[in-house]
Each structure stands twice: as C-alpha cells, then as structure tokens.
Fold each of these.
Amino acid sequence: MGVWKAHYRGIVCLNVLDDDSMIVSAGEDGMIHVWNLADVLDKEGPMVRSRYSLKGHTLAVSGICTGNFGCSSRIASSSLDHSVKLWTIDGSLLETFVLPGPATCVCMDVLETWIFAGGEDGTIRQFPLRQDLQWKPRLFEGHSSSVTCVKLTLTGLVLVSTSLDSTCRLWDVFSSQLLSVVHFTKPVTSVLLCQQSDISGGDPCKPLLRYQGRTENIIEVSLSVQRGPFI
C-alpha cells in the first residue's frame, strides 16, 4: 500500500482516467492534482509528485468529473466558491460557470458536450460546453436540500441525482421533467450507475430483486440503466 502527501487539507474525491494512466484528486484546499498512476505505484511516498496542478478555486473543491478520452479528457470541477470550472488535463482553464450559491457536485456527458452542476440550494443546472450551442442554463428543480451527486446514464438521456433530502431522483435530460423519485429514511450521498448484467450475474434476462433490508444507513444507491430503478 502506497501513502503520500497529496493535499494540505482533506481529500474530497479521487477519479481514475478511463485509460488508467492518471489519478485526479481534489481537496478542501481548493486544489486539483493530476498524478501519474505509474509513479504512485512505483515510488515511495515522499518521492511522489503531481504531474499537473490545477489552481483557480478559492474555496474547497466539492466534486470533479473526468472525461472519457484518456489523457485528452477534460476535467470539470465544482467548488464552494460558487463556480464550476472546465480544465484540460495539464491545468489550462477553459471555462468558468458561476452559480448563485455553492456548487456541490458536477458531471459531464460521454461526449463532453454538456455539464451538470448540483447546488446547495437543491437545484441542478445544465450548461453547454460547445460555443456553437446557444443555450441558456437549464434548471432541474425538485430537491428540497443540497444536491450531493449527479450522474448521467450512458445514453445521456437520463440524469440521476441524490440529495440530503433523502431522495434519489431521475430526470429527463431534454425536458428537465422529473421521471421518478426513490425515497429513503436518511440523506443519500452518492449514486453508482451500472449495467444490469453487472448486478444480475451476467444474465440480462434474470429479474432483479428489490432490496428488502434496513435503509437507515444507506449512503450509496445502485441503479440499473436498463430496468432501473432497483435498490
């Protein structure tokens, strides 16, 4: 197990690029670091140095999202400084979106065309990442408390969000309409989307059973993107 000093304050999230070449970390110190995975695995803790450092946020980073194009991917970050930023892997700032309140989470679609940002006010905002798209920020309203996580299905047609209001909501991306609500007894902090074959033993025809256990301490929800939502 390797251990190294990565941030001056607590680490908020870690992402691994889809080609497994780099790790992206974000912290309460407002910094985002990009690390070579080979360095992390091969070197001793004191010898590990970040390859790139992304500086621009003035308060804690609350979330990051990396694209699906390996080292050519872009990084989206949300922060309590009321902003969402888009970066290149090497730290060049491409775009800044300003929110009326703290941004708590962020995600992008597979083609890196749209960015979705959850806010402390319970609202999700959609921004275009292409300059040729004349698009005003679209709002997804329904949560009564801070949004904790936003994720898109692989098709990009459904947005999934979780919140401190103890709900998980599914939205139609193109109309901003609410499709479904899953209620819990405690706040939900994150969501993981997976193919049905990943949670049905490889058999896509095998029916999935609803979770019948206690939900008091649930902190993550798994949804099937083919037949969801199932818990």
Amino acid sequence: MVIQRGGPEQLSRESRARIQSLRKAGKKSKTIARMLNCSLCTVDRWVHAVQITDNKKRKRVVGRKPILTGKLAKDVDKLLEDRVYLGSRRIAPIINKKYKADISARTIRRFQNNQGFTYGKDTPKPTLTDKMKKKRLEWAKRHLKDDFRRYIFSDSKIFRIGTPGLRHRRRGPAKIIQRDKWGGQVHVWWAFSYDRIYPPQEIKGTLDADGYVKILQKTLGKHYDNGTLFIQDKARCNISKKASKWLDDHHIDYFKDWPTKGIDMNVIENVWGTLEQEKRAKDFSKVDPMKKFIISKMIFFSIMAVRRYIDSMPLRLQEVIDKKGSYTKYF
C-alpha cells in the first residue's frame, strides 16, 4: 500500500487505524513508518494528535493512590504532634500494628513532609567566635602528633526523660508543637582511657567544686597511671582552685590549655550520643529505671568501642586544622 507523504490530514482512515493498532502492539514509530512507507514525522504527528484527543475524553491519573487517607491520616498526624521525639521508623510499626497495615517509614516521611513537619535538632550549634576558633586551631596543631592512648577523657552528662534531641515540629518559627517538659533527670560523671573505664559517678544536685573533688578522689585518686594526661572541660567546678590544687597535689597531669567549645575534640561526647540514642529507644517514663539502664550501660560499655573513638583523634584534630578551627563533622 502506497501512502502519500504529508501531515496527519493526508492519511487515509485505514492508515490511521493501522498506525493505532501497531502502536498498541508496541511497535515504534520508526518501524511503523517503514511498514507504511511514509515519513517518521507523519507517524509521530498522528500519534501525538491521537494522544491529545484521548486525554480530552478521560482524566489522566498520575501516580498511585495515596495510602494515608481519612482516619489513618488523622491518627498519624496526631501521633506526630503528641510524640514529637519519635522518628518515622518508630512511628511506622505503631501504625501497622494498630491498623494491620503495611506502611513503610518512607511513606510516613513523605506524609510528614506534605503536612508541613520537619524532624531534626531543635537547637543549633553553639556559636564560635574568632578567638575560640584560633584557640581550637592552635591546640589541634600543638597536639596533632600526640600519643592519644595516654589521654583520659572525662565529662558529665544530664540524661532527661523526654530529652529534645530530634523532634517533629510544624514549619515556622512560632509553631513548635511541644515545649520542654521534664519528667526527671539523671546527672552522671564518667571518664575512660585506652586501657581503663572508670566507674561512673552519679551527681545529686548541682555539681560544685567540693563535689567535683570527691568524684576525683573516688576515680583518679584510686586508679591513675603515671604518664597519662587528664582532659576536662572548662566548667567552673572543673577549673576551680580546689580542683586544680587537688590535681596538683596528687601529681595528676591535666590540660590547662583545653579550648573553650572543644566538644567535637572530646571523644566522650560520641559515647554520650550513643547512650542517648539507646535511652531514647526505651522511651522511659520514670527516673529509676532510666538510671539503672544508663549506669549499667556505662559499666559494661565496650572497651573496643572506646578504643575506636580514641583512635579517631588524629582525624578529628586534622579536620579542625583543615576547617581553621570551625566545627567538624564529629560535633
């Protein structure tokens, strides 16, 4: 069959029907043009004209139907508002168990994004001044090649019921869903080195200079290896005259030039982060069970994990140098 070359209006009714049937059979426009002995442009123009006509007759449905609708969507929305510290991976099992559904964490995240929720840290990083950056950079350069296996890392940490680490909130500065409401807290002090994990010390009330000296007596006073260097932050009780005198009298070497805001250079902060995640997963509602859980985790914390953190110190200090004293990814 010979067909005149030209636009769609020059094709016979028989040719148009054949083009449609061949397209439905999965043939490409180039193959159809060769079979009908017409130009590729003519076939493409006619196929396009048919598609436009079909679209006018029926409404096209793009994508799959939404999974979270009706009462299910309202329940997920309420769960995001009421339990702001639960991530999508923990919300999905709750919904699936209640409705006997099979909803993925990705679907929850998509729904949360469409509803105007964000999920992340509530507070930004502390600001670093130029003076702080300079001291951080100088300390990193000075101690980059030290033997970090001789270091004793120490710090105190407050574990709270409902700690606002990551939370859901509606977008907008004045639309935070839930304020900080504490149901209780546990304040602990801890220290470790490459070969030793010191017993954790619970702090009751405010930690002052006398209380800090008592903690040092129970830990470093009983177990201190000569030649090790003690790291402590610049809290007032830590740099007090009483604490400094006790360290000097017991011949304990410690860093007097530790920089302000040296959070990401102290590996114990990463251990705090690990314990915080494990505590949040338990979702405690009372202080005593949380205290027992935290203390037991600290006592039986893996020495191999501690060594991996300490072995990362050269990389941490090198990144501080590369970023000229600014915060690193270890924050």
Amino acid sequence: MTNLRTRGEKISSPVSLRPRGFSLLEVVVTGSLLAIVAATALPLLSWIIAERRIAGHEQLAQQELANLMERLTLLPADELTPERVEKFTLSEWAQRRLPDPALEIDVAEVTAPRGKRIQAELRWRFNRSPQPRVTRLTAWVYDEGDSP
C-alpha cells in the first residue's frame, strides 16, 4: 500500500507536547548569570583603564626626563650649576597631562674623574593617592679629557 498525496492536502505531523519559547525560570536564571558576569567584569575593566592611564603617565614622564637630560648633558660641565638648571622646566604639554607635576634637578660634583652628576626627578599624583608616582634619571657630565 502506497500513500499518495493529492494537490492541496496537508500532511499532518504529530503534535509536540512541549511548549515553544522560554519559561520564566529559564529567563530568571539567564538574567542572574549575566548580572554576575557583569558585576565581575566592570571592576576589572575599570582597573584596566586605570592601569593604562598610569602606564601612559609613566611613559610621558620618562620621555620628558630623557629630553630634559639630553638638553642638560649638552652643556659643558662648568656651566652646570644649580642656578642654571633651575631654568629648565617641563614642557607645557607634559604639565597639562601629568597631574600635579613637580620637577627637581640636582647637580653634584664628581671628583675622580672631574665632572658633575645630574639627577632629575619628576613626581606626580594619580587619583589623589597619598603616595606620588616618581620617575628618576641620572647622568654624568665630565670635564673635557677627564671622561672615564
């Protein structure tokens, strides 16, 4: 026996007893899982953003000190005096980007071989933290003919 279908007849399928869509319990469980994931991800994302900002400030401070040190080491050793180095400042761009920047430059005599030690220190605060962030750079300038 063959079952032939004529034009326009519908083939009936067995009716599914399972309702279509999601139950309220499934929606509540999914929503609470998403809330837990969001609650753990948001603090992590804010921490990542803060760390990237700190890294950017540190890179800017290192670059600024390297540029400053290059200008200072081009001076002859006899011109490196505390009065002379007081005239060196941070660039306007660095002053705007770093929160509460403070630059200190120290020049000290070196005896053997004769010359000067230059230490530049740049401090700034991040998010009103009690401890300032510090970047230091040290270089030596020797009298002509006295280099090590």
Amino acid sequence: MTLPNGTARPSGTTTVRPVFESVVLLGTTPKKTSLAFEQPASRALPPWTDPHLTNSRWNRTDPEARAQVLAAIGRSAWPLVLYGATGSGKSCLAACLFRWFPSPNDPRHPVLWVQAAAEVRALTTAWREGQAPVLSQTTDMVVERSEHWLLSRMRDAAFVVLDDLGLRTPTESQQDAVLEIINARSGKPTVITTNLSMQRLAQTYDDRIVSRLAAGVAISVQGQDRRAFEN
C-alpha cells in the first residue's frame, strides 16, 4: 500500500476503515443512531473511501491543496485545517488521509472521525449534567460517560478527523468545549475541516482557539462542488 504521493506505507501497519462517530443531542431522549460509541465502530463509508475508488477520488480533489496537505504532513504540522466552501472536497481529502493513516492496531489508540458540533454538545452536556450518554457496543445499552472519558478518548486517539467545525455564534461554554478538544489534540495528528475561512474563524472563536489552530497549517480547498457530479 502506498500513500497518495507514492510513498510506501511503513512496514507493520495496516489500512483502517473510517469510523464515524456522533453524539447525543442536548436535552433530548437519546436515539441509538445519535449516540457516541464506547469503542470505535465500523459504519457506512462515504463513496470516496471505497478501496477501488480512493486513488481516483484523491486525484479529483484540488491539486494545490493536495500538495500542501502532503507537505504539511511531511513536516508534522498539526493540526491540519482544511477550509473551503461546501462540496469543495475538504471531507474527501480528510477521508483519504483517514484511510491511509497507519493504524497502531491498539484499541486504546483508535483512529477517529467525529463531528465537531456533536463532540461539543457531548462535552457541554457532561459539564452541565456530569455525564453524557454513550452507546456501549458490548451491551448495546446506553451508558453514561464523563468529561474525563470524552477528553481521554480524544487525547489518546492515534489520529482524529474533526469534521465541520463552524458554530456560527458559539456560547461561552461551546467556546470552552472547542478549546478543550483542540488542546487534547495538541501536537498530535489531527485534521479539522470547516466551511469558515480563517478570517471567519478568527471572528467566530476567541484568541485561544485561533492561536491553537494557527500552530498548525491552514489550507484552502477550492475544488469544484463534488456533490454536483456525484449525484
């Protein structure tokens, strides 16, 4: 297996399937499909992560963004912030990196794909109520997990894609939650996707968050709206 730039994958590593996790909405009785998973679970894959399509999907993304992504990874410049309009290929790039990331084959250090807004809701729920509902895969029952569990999961993961960061008018507690999540991933392999430009992010989030994001590399993704030719 090779990386998108033709580099051979390190020996002793394996390909992983993306894991999509979401968490329960605040103030509602949780539905099973809206819960975080206690351990990563295989879910339906977006079409561009099919093993027979991955390379072609990668090659159909913004070529300049691709080059910048690979250069940033070569420098271990984390976090990697991919920003651009809806459908520009941000999540496609993130999903390809997710698939190619070497898995440590250790359940204590999973490879995670999480929705930013859902993670923020879970963390603010844990702060407000002391716990957040999570679906246990071993018992198929809803269990309660603490702030410590939520942040430890993020901190211990080998690689995280934080998808769709972009609350329009975050509250103070939501700002704090975003900061805690980003702090948990400080210096670790992390990709963040957002529809907001860096200027908009700076206007939306406080200086602490912007400073953490600026510690990595921000890459503008300007590809054609992929949804227009995938439907």
